[in-house]
Amino acid sequence: MIKEITTQRLYLRKMDVLDSPSLFKIWSDPDVTKFMNIATFTHENQAREMIEILEELVHANKAIRFSMIELKSNEIIGTCGFNSIDFENAKAEIGYDIAKANWGLGYAPEGIHALLSYAFETLELNRIEAKVEPANMNSIKVLQKLNFTFEGTLRQYEKSKANYIDINMYSLLKTD
To answer: Is 168 within a domain?
Structure first.
């Protein structure tokens, strides 16, 4: 599987435990983790543990997560990738997070667009899914900008932070 992708303003490379300090800063912001299925981090070792868990999924060929690095500053500004990959059914689920200081600057759509190209052209996937909490308007706007289709609401689909929550399902097909 690919280890890096470059866009006009971003360098996406496979996440590494050395990214822990930078990712801890992002994942310790309650505004960033509000709609993520994780508790806001309080210790840097939590970021390291998360990266190690994701690395196991990469080795199993079931997921890949990239650190999103702004080329101009060479700073990690977020992550994006495939939370799960199902080669048998030619589909994957995407996920992404951006440091609050970089919200609204178009980095999420730019990074995800590169992931979509990789998914459809190189991995030969047919379908990309995104699961989003209905109140996460920033994420919904990103998906709309990328022409994802809203498929419906999955009622009380996940347990997040001790509560059952609804999830909106979005998808993009290779033929879209």
So the answer is: no
